[in-house]
Amino acid sequence: MNRTLMEKIKKSDFSDKISLIIALIVLVFVFSFFNKNYFSSRNLINILVACSLMGFVAIGETKLIIANLIDLSAGSVAAFAGVFCAVLMQMGVNPFLALLLGVASGCFVGLLNAVLINHLKLQPFIATLAMMSIVRGFAYIICNGRAVPITNKTFISFGTWRLFGWIPLPVIILILAFLIFGFILKSTFFGRSVYVMGGNPYAARLSGLNPEMITLKLYLITGGLSALAGALLAARMNSGQPTASVGLEFDAVTAAILGGAAFTGGVGTLLGTFIGMLILQGFNTGLIMLNVQIFWQNVAQGCLLVVALAFDYLRKKDRTKKLLEESKRTIKS
Amino acid sequence: MSSFLKKEASVLDRYVEFKHIDKFFPGVHALNDISFSAKSGLVYAFLGENGAGKSTLLKILNGDYQPDNGEFSIDGKPCHYSSPKDAIEDGVSVIYQERQVILEMTVAENVFLGQWPCKRGGKVDFDLMNAKTYEIAKRFGLEINPDEKVSNLSIAHQQMVEIMKAVNRNARVFAFDEPTASLSDKEIEILFNIIRQLQAEDKVIFYVSHRMDEISQIAQKVVVFKDGSLVGLVDCDQVTDDDLIRMMVGRPLGAVFADLSRNETIGDIVLDVRHLSTAKVDDISFQVRKGEILGFSGLVGSGRTEIMLALFGLDPVLGGEIFLERKRIQPQSPAQAIALGLAMVPEDRKIQGILPNISVKGNISISVLKRFLKMLGRIDYSKEDQIAREAIEKFDIKTPDAEKLISQLSGGNQQKTILARWLETDPKVLILDEPTKGIDVGAKSEFYRIICECAKLGMAVIVISSELPEIIGLCDRIIVVREGSISGEVLRKDATEENVLKYAMIDQENIEGEIKKL
Questions:
Q1: Which residues of B273-311 are buried (b: 16+ CB within 10 A; e: fewer)?
Q2: For residue B404, what is the nearest residue in chain A, using CA coordinates?
Q3: Which residue would you say has higher pLDDT here, A43 or B410?
Q4: More confident call, B515 vs A248
Q5: If exposure means fewest CB atoms within 10 Å of the residue's CB, which of A268, B10, B137, B209 is most exposed?
């Protein structure tokens, strides 16, 4: 391989994400200026803990968005899985088995989503909208609408145990998940087919891929990850709450879009989503540390999205213009 | 507005003048210094290959694009439209091949689209609308009820509604963009009568088509485009079809085919289809041999493509058998068909072929990527690079590097990339559906060369094409499909446009029947 290191870096994902990374650095710099505690490992961990829930879902949503799909039921699945685990524990089920069953419940919802989309040909938006409502309903039904306390120490430790007394378990799992799914998306055949499908599903089929199978796998993954997030949240909160994580899927989608995933499909990376997620949560945490009223978080999140996409649009427009100028010059000469 | 137009109508010589129009797209000089003027009362046909610039010029005329250099004027007044809305308000109407009518509205509502007359109080004046629409229909001798929902009309009549819309807006310039593509002969006659009526009303008329016979019927002037440049503006009655083709192509097409190095040794039967039936085709039987190029001709919609969809596992097979090298096969999906050794380059490159968000490399390797995965299912990047590099070289795909997005290449190079994707699978049977549609002449002859190479390598090649010279020049044998069945077979030595067409056309009784249905 005669590629130089510079070329390698140029072609790597980092160069694409350069404006995002700069935004992140600026953000850290500005908030550190106002509050000395902002740039500390402790606070970084806090930020990661705060976004661990959204992070798992964002992994799933990123893949779905790349494949031109979406899952609106993720927040409901997380809530259901949390309550479901808590109820199982009350029944005396082993905490590990309860966690497994919780995740399985999420995969089951994913399966239903895929069936609705593949076999009843429902639009992904509509199919998962319906599931969002149905699953949320069941989350209330299995606990009669009341939060279910969790007392099992082992299960609680899933959400609170810290490596070296420092990094909490959910953060470790989240980072592992990003690495594993990042690898799958970037370097495996399955990952490549996700991009292909988002660009042009019919051409994907004609190329010998199986779009239905890809859809199924993606929803299984997203369902499972959402449920895992919900179970870990329940462990951290010592209870399964049917009202938990409303709108979680939208936060996750926001992170993915901030990270460069395109709603038209075919474009996006997990590295981008990870940075997008850090920016989103870093902003929120920063606002809290500056004692800004909490409602401003919503405003900030929306503005961030608009600014990011507007910036992206202007950059693309500029690039097209340059391309045009270039071809004008070369053609004339 | 209307009083202004009335005054204009008395001026005799109306004209549209294009002055030094240039238009660039990334990598393409779409229009190169176009200058000519068109007088009212004549029909100007735009002739040229796909991508020669005809449609781009129309899009500049209707305000969809703005020229990078130059300008055009109508009746001496320069026009600077920033959107199609400006053009429409200024009296320029383009009638597209895809009709822009609202199916769920009535004829009259469509004719007045966006300009519905209102009574006092804001209520739409349906009576006035219907009366005016009836008047226009009568003027053109059309039997269309203003009250009818457009979705109930035939395709031809829907197009007439489109024209009535333009007439109602008092348009002074009419441009037709391949209006006859989906019309039957009888319907084309209706359209031509309307165009002649518009001509008599002293409008400026542009007519884009690549059917020679139509142009000689309706046009007085022909504007010939080639690769974005205007190569000639000639009187229709002073040139022959051959002259026009030579202007369009640069050389007679026959020469391209005469120069091809053909495969002389045709081997055993590779694909044997017996009595194949699907929902769209009936009792199809044919064979293709090793090294043979078999052509499928027939009108669009005759079922040519549907036969291939069935072979490729996309349309369910209802009856009959398919044998590949004497073994019976029943592919249920493209994945299975590919595994068996079939490959299909589909008809519509944009919808069915390219993976737009992926690089040239990814577009080539996708069909074979699965064959060289490393541990943990990782893609072998160096192998992928190698395949892409070799294919780019072999097929002379013009791209700065393999990482470039395929959507940024020209049509011909996109098509070569897709062909490369399929040839990587080393197919036994290669199916090409309209392989040269929308690509320029240079790329076309290159394509013919590649197709002949494939035959020499021992593939059985099936080519579907609407272009008769192409299918006659390229194929060893031609099967003609009509209304879902095979209507005839012509050998290369006997093939002429006439005898292929004879099998392709619907017989006279059927035409009458079709018209009654309309």
A1: beebbbebbbebebbbbbbbbbbbbbbeebbbbbbbbbb
A2: A11
A3: A43
A4: A248
A5: B10
- Among candidates B29, B338, B355 on the partner chain, residue whose Cβ is nearest the Cβ of A196: B355
Residue-wise pLDDT for A145-160, tens only, equals 888 988 888 888 888 8
Interface of B with A in 211-270 (CB under 8 A): none
**Whole-number CA gyration radius for chain A:** 21
Contact criterion met (CB < 8 Å) for B353 and A11: no
Tokens of A276: 């997008």
Burial bucket for residue B400 (CB in 10 Å: 0-12, 13-18, 19+) = exposed
Q: State the amino acid at position B323 in one-letter form.
A: F
Asked whether the beta carbons of B105 and B161 are under 8 A apart, the reply is no
Indicate whether B255 pLDDT > 70. no
What is the rounded CA–CA span in Å between residue B32 and residue B29?
6
The two three-digit tokens of residue A151, written as one number: 């007392």
Tell me whether A265 touches chain B (CB under 8 Å).
yes
Is B378 within 8 Å of A187 when comparing Cβ atoms? yes
What pLDDT digit, counting tens, does each position of B181-230 carry? 767 777 788 888 889 988 998 889 999 876 777 888 899 999 998 878 89
- Between chains, do A200 and B351 touch, taking CB under 8 Å as contact? yes
Distance of CA B494 to the CA centre of its chain: 28
Average pLDDT over residues A248-271: 88
Other Cβ atoms less than 10 A from the Cβ of B383: the count is 16
Minimum Cα–Cα distance from A190: chain B residue: B377
Does residue B2 have a pLDDT over 60? no
- Structure token pair of residue B115: 């300009």
Alpha carbon of A264: minimum distance to chain B alpha carbons (Å): 10
Query: To the nearest 10°, the Cα dihedral for B211, B216, B222, B227?
Result: 20
The span from the CA of B225 to the CA of B43, in Å, is 16
CA distance A211 to A218: 10
What is the percent of chain B with per-residue pLDDT over 70, rounded to a whole number? 90
- Residue bearing the bigger pLDDT, B158 or B286: B286
Helices A74-90, A248-258: crossing angle, 10 deg rounding: 130
Q: Does B378 touch chain A (CB under 8 A)?
A: yes
Residue B252 DSSP class: -
Contact B395, B420 (CB under 8 A): yes
Please check whether residue B382 touches A, CB under 8 A: yes
> A207–B355: do the CB atoms touch at under 8 Å?
yes
pTM over 0.80: no
- Put simply, the answer to whether B26 touches A323 (Cβ < 8 Å) is yes
Task: Provide the percentage of residues in chain B whose pLDDT is more than 90.
Answer: 16
Strand-strand pairing, A162-163 and A167-168: antiparallel
Q: Which residues of A touch B227 (CB under 8 A)?
A: none
Query: Are B356 and A200 inside 8 Å of each other by CB?
Result: yes
Which ipTM value was assigned to this complex? Answer: 0.70
Compute the average pLDDT of residues B253-258.
68
pLDDT at A57: 95
